[in-house]
Amino acid sequence: MVSRVIPVDDFDLVIFGATGDLAHRKIIPGLFRRFVAGQIPDTAQIIGAARTEQSDDDFRAEAAKSIVEFGGVKKDDPALAQFLPLLSYVPIDAKGDGGWKELKSRMRKRAIHAFYFSVAPALFGDIAERLAKNGIADSKSRIVVEKPFGRDLQTARALNKMLAQYFAEEQIYRIDHYLGKETVQNLMAVRFANILFEPLWNAQYIDHVQITVAETVGVAGRGSYYDKSGAIRDMVQNHMMQLLCLIAMEPPYHFDPDAVRDEKLKVIRALEPVEAIDIVRGQYQADEDGDGYLADSENPDSRTESYVAMKVRISNWRWQGTPFYLRTGKKLRARTSEIAITFKEPPHSIFEDAGTSGAPKANELVIRLQPNEGMNLKVMIKEPGPGGMRLVQVPLDMTFADALGPEGADMPDAYERLIMDVIRGNQTLFMRGDEVEAAWAWTDPIINAWEESKNRPEPYDSGSSGPEEALRLMHRDNRRWKEIRA
C-alpha cells in the first residue's frame, strides 16, 4: 500500500523555545521528515526564536545535530543540506522588546503564518501580546500551544481568557500529541467507516473498556516538575481523557473540527463524579538499580502519585452500565499504551453440552498505540483436528508494519502530522477551549479530595504492574486488568 502525501501551502513557522528539548527532539526532526516526504515546499521558512544569542548558522548546526540524533539520518544525507537553508534564527526577549522588529521583518505577507509556543505556559501571554501589538500576527495567523493547559479549572479559564484577548478560538491549536497517533485516528475510521462495529458499540454488547498508558521510566531528571502535577494532571486529564472521548463519543454529523469536538465535549460532560472507592493512587518504590519516587522527586514527604487507576462511568443511553477502567503509571513492567474493548459473552453457548473443551471467551478488540501500532480482534474458532469441538481464541491481527508494508512501519510521528494540520488550518485533532475547561471541571474534585485527605499513595514495586489495590479495584467487579507487556 502506497501512502499519499499531500503538500501544504507555503508557510512561515516560528518556533518559540527553539533551543529547548521539545524543539530538538520532536519539532525540528519532524519537520525534516515532512520535507523529505515532499510535504513541505522548499520555499517555506522555519524561524527559531529564543533568548539565546546565536546566528542562523549556529542554529542550523544545532538543528542538524538534532536531526541526525533523533531523526535517524546520516550527517552526509543530501536531504539535510537541502532542508537546513529553510531554517533561520532570531534572538527574542519574550518579556521585552528585543528581537520583535527583526522577527516582523522576516515574515512574508503571502505565506501562512504559524507560531509554535514551545515554552512554559507562563510565557504564553507575553508572546501572544507582543505578536499582536507588533503587528506580526493577524486574523489569519495560527498559534500552537503546548500542554499543560493550566493546572486546574481556574488557571485553564484564565489561560483561555488571556489567549482570547489576541486570538480567536479558530486560531488557537491546543496540541495533544496522542491525537496525532495513527492508531488513534484509525479508531475513528474503524468505528465510523465500517458497519461492523458501530451497531455493537454500546452498553448492550460491550462489557467494559480498559485504557492503559504504562511507562518503564521514572521521574528522575524532571522530578521537581512532575511532583507538582502527578499522574492525573500529567496523563489522565489530557491524554487519557482524549482517548476516552474518542471511544465513547457519538458519531458526528461530519468529519469536521467542531462536529467532532462537540461530541467529545458531550462525553466529558456526561462523566459521573468518581467515588473514592473507585480510585487507586500509587507511588513507585526503590529497586536494586535505582531510587524510588521520593528520591527522584527530591521530596521525601511527597504525596504525589506516580500511578493512578480509576473506574469511570458515563451517564448516557449508549454507555449506562458499562464501566471504563483507566490506569497509567511510571516505572511499570513495560512501556505500552493500549485500549481494550471487551465485549459481552454470548447469551447462550450451544457447545457446553456437546462434549467440548474450552468454553467460549468474550471477544476483545485491542487498539495498540505504542509500541507496534495496530489493532487486534480476538475471536473464537474451532481448534483444528479430530476429537470433538474444541474451541480456541485466536487474534485477527492488524499490526500496521505488517499489514501496510514499509509505509506502515514508517508512519509519520504524531508531531509531524499535527504540525501539518496546523498549516492546513484543520483543528479536528486539537482541543477546544471549552473541552479543556470541562475536563478540568471533572478532574478538580478528584484532586481536591486527595489533597484534603492527606493520604499517601499506595506503594508499588518498580517493574511491577502497579499497586495491589488496583488489582482489587477490578476484582470487586469480577474482572481483571490486561497484562502489561511490551
TrEMBL record:
Which residues are annotated as active site? 239
Which portions of the sequence form the region Disordered? 453-474
Q: What InterPro entries does its record include?
A: G6P_DH (IPR001282), G6P_DH_AS (IPR019796), G6P_DH_C (IPR022675), G6P_DH_NAD-bd (IPR022674), NAD(P)-bd_dom_sf (IPR036291)
Glucose-6-phosphate dehydrogenase C-terminal domain span: 188-482
Q: What GO terms in the biological process aspect are recorded for it?
A: glucose metabolic process; pentose-phosphate shunt, oxidative branch
Q: What is its EC number?
A: 1.1.1.49
A molecular function (GO) held by this record is:
glucose-6-phosphate dehydrogenase activity
Binding-site residues, NADP(+)? 51, 147
Q: List ligand-binding residues for substrate.
A: 177, 181, 215, 234, 330
Catalysed reaction, written as an equation: D-glucose 6-phosphate + NADP(+) = 6-phospho-D-glucono-1,5-lactone + NADPH + H(+)
**SUPFAM superfamilies attached to this UniProt entry:** Glyceraldehyde-3-phosphate dehydrogenase-like, C-terminal domain, NAD(P)-binding Rossmann-fold domains
Annotated metabolic or biological route of this protein: Carbohydrate degradation; pentose phosphate pathway; D-ribulose 5-phosphate from D-glucose 6-phosphate (oxidative stage): step 1/3
> A GO CC term?
cytosol
Keywords tagged on the record: Carbohydrate metabolism, Glucose metabolism, NADP, Oxidoreductase
Q: Where does the record place the Glucose-6-phosphate dehydrogenase NAD-binding domain?
A: 14-186
Q: Which family does it belong to?
A: Belongs to the glucose-6-phosphate dehydrogenase family.
Known function: Catalyzes the oxidation of glucose 6-phosphate to 6-phosphogluconolactone.
Protein name stated in the entry: Glucose-6-phosphate 1-dehydrogenase
Q: Which gene encodes it?
A: zwf
